[in-house]
UniProtKB/TrEMBL annotation:
GO terms for molecular function: ATP binding; phosphoribosyl-AMP cyclohydrolase activity; phosphoribosyl-ATP diphosphatase activity. It catalyses: 1-(5-phospho-beta-D-ribosyl)-ATP + H2O = 1-(5-phospho-beta-D-ribosyl)-5'-AMP + diphosphate + H(+); 1-(5-phospho-beta-D-ribosyl)-5'-AMP + H2O = 1-(5-phospho-beta-D-ribosyl)-5-[(5-phospho-beta-D-ribosylamino)methylideneamino]imidazole-4-carboxamide. It is found in: Cytoplasm. Its EC number is 3.5.4.19, 3.6.1.31. NCBIfam families: histidine_hisI, PRK00051.1, PRK02759.1. Belongs to the HisA/HisF family. In the N-terminal section; belongs to the PRA-CH family. The gene is hisI. This is Histidine biosynthesis bifunctional protein HisIE.
Length: 427
């Protein structure tokens, strides 16, 4: 039996979140905060639909999707207004795990083979409004996509008999029993719609209800039982916490079995406080959550290594890491390439938000995009000229100039290093 997912959905119309099932009633003016809220309270995935009617609104929705991706820590499937390959590319580049094609539109049916071959079938989902579309287009769906989003109450048993492609059901039902029935269907991997998209839903409590109904509701599963770990004299398991991107050691804490189980269940690092004698979720008061990427036990099974996505600072002092006080050794300059790039990028972004008099970076931002592009072009030319000379030092110098100006362009256009590394990984 596979894991099931709770997947709230956001319909974007005019830059606001609307309730599609209730004649587009506005449910949130701040789409970004709503998306972040879903991730923070335990949703497993997010579906975003763009209901725009014009190219201008569509571009605004793409920008919102990009901004949503920066604040959530759960996967996102996005679609709407997809008419050509470029639209799929924009959704994926904005951070969507999958781009969704609406198979109620013939244009999407014609497009699926092209975008699947360009981006990979694992990056393509299909939305369906009726059973007939599934039956007629089954071969295309199975060959060129890896997920179905059902926008209608269907005979789920019939669906399973037709296709093996996993599906998420978006339903307008508010009946808990109906939601549980949907989740128990073998071909369903998740449920969405009005019930799951309630702003005040307690996802963890509902997952407990699902578990009591023999529905597996966690994205993580430990392959080693907590009883197999070797605990310290206090009956606790030490945990070393590391940034998954930079490998920087952030902090050290302890877990008991309850904290370990909550970490697995929620996807948020949860510890046991020796001083307060109680469980605590990292970031619950500060907002500086740690989202689990991997948990690994050492060779003696007595220390856990957690690689996490850290929101904000890890240390209560405001420092990025708890390990910031030198004891022995000389100062050294950080050499981790990603850390260097992230640090320079952060400085450039800070200059844009907090201008500093006399700053060359601020001069570029003040002059605007044309000046920035001109400098990027000039520096690229300088690299070519330097590469024709025998001294490699000139190339290093010119490439450093180019990368700096490229980062100014990235900040100006809202592109992060994570966007770039994700794109390289996808390629």
């Amino acid at each position: 039996m596979s894991y099931k997912r709770l997947t709230p959905c956001i319909f974007i119309d005019g830059g606001k979140a609307v309730r599609w099932f209730d004649d587009k009633e506005v449910i949130a003016d701040d789409v970004i905060s709503l998306a972040k809220h879903y991730g923070d309270v335990g949703a497993d995935e997010l579906i975003v639909f763009d209901l725009s009617n014009s190219d201008e609104e569509h571009e605004e929705s793409i920008d919102l999707i990009k901004r949503i991706n920066r604040v959530i820590n759960i996967p996102m499937v996005a679609g709407g207004n997809v008419r050509r390959q470029e639209d799929v590319k924009k959704l994926l580049y904005a951070g969507a795990k999958r781009a969704m094609l609406n198979f109620s539109k013939p244009l999407s049916i014609d497009l699926i083979e092209e975008v699947s071959q360009r981006f990979g079938k694992e990056r393509i989902a299909v939305s369906l409004n009726d059973f007939d579309a599934l039956f007629k287009q089954q071969h295309l769906i199975e060959e060129y996509s890896t997920e179905i989003i059902f926008m209608h109450r269907l005979d789920l048993n019939s669906v399973i008999n037709v296709t093996q492609v996993p599906c998420v059901v978006v339903t307008d039902t508010m009946e808990q029993a109906e939601i549980l029935k949907i989740l128990k269907s073998d071909g369903v991997k998740g449920v969405s719609g009005l019930f799951i998209s309630q702003k005040d839903i307690d996802f963890n409590s509902f997952k407990d209800i699902c578990t009591s109904e023999d529905i597996r509701m966690t994205s993580f599963e430990s392959v080693i039982d907590f009883s197999e770990f070797k605990l310290n004299s206090d009956g606790l398991l030490p945990v070393i916490v590391q940034d998954y991107k930079t490998n920087e050691v952030l902090m050290m804490a302890y877990m008991n079995e309850e904290a370990f189980d909550h970490t697995i269940k929620s996807g948020k690092m949860t510890y046991y406080s020796r001083s307060r004698k109680e469980q605590w979720i990292k970031g619950e008061t500060s907002g500086h959550y740690q989202y689990v990427k991997t948990l690994t036990i050492d060779c003696d099974k007595d220390t856990l290594l957690a690689k996490v996505e850290q929101v904000g600072a890890a240390c209560h002092t405001g420092n990025q890491t708890c390990f910031f006080q030198p004891v022995v050794g000389n100062d050294y300059e950080g050499k981790n390439p990603l850390q260097v790039f992230e640090s320079v990028y952060a400085t450039i972004a800070d200059r844009k938000q907090n201008p500093k008099e006399g700053s060359y970076t601020n001069y570029l931002f003040e002059k605007g995009i044309d000046k920035i592009l001109k400098k990027v072009g000039e520096e690229a030319t300088e690299i070519i000229i330097a590469a024709k000379n025998p001294n490699p030092e000139e190339v290093k110098y010119e490439m450093s100039d180019f990368l700096y100006h490229a980062m100014v362009l990235m900040v100006e256009r809202g592109i992060t290093w994570e966007d770039i590394t994700n794109e390289l990984i996808d390629r």
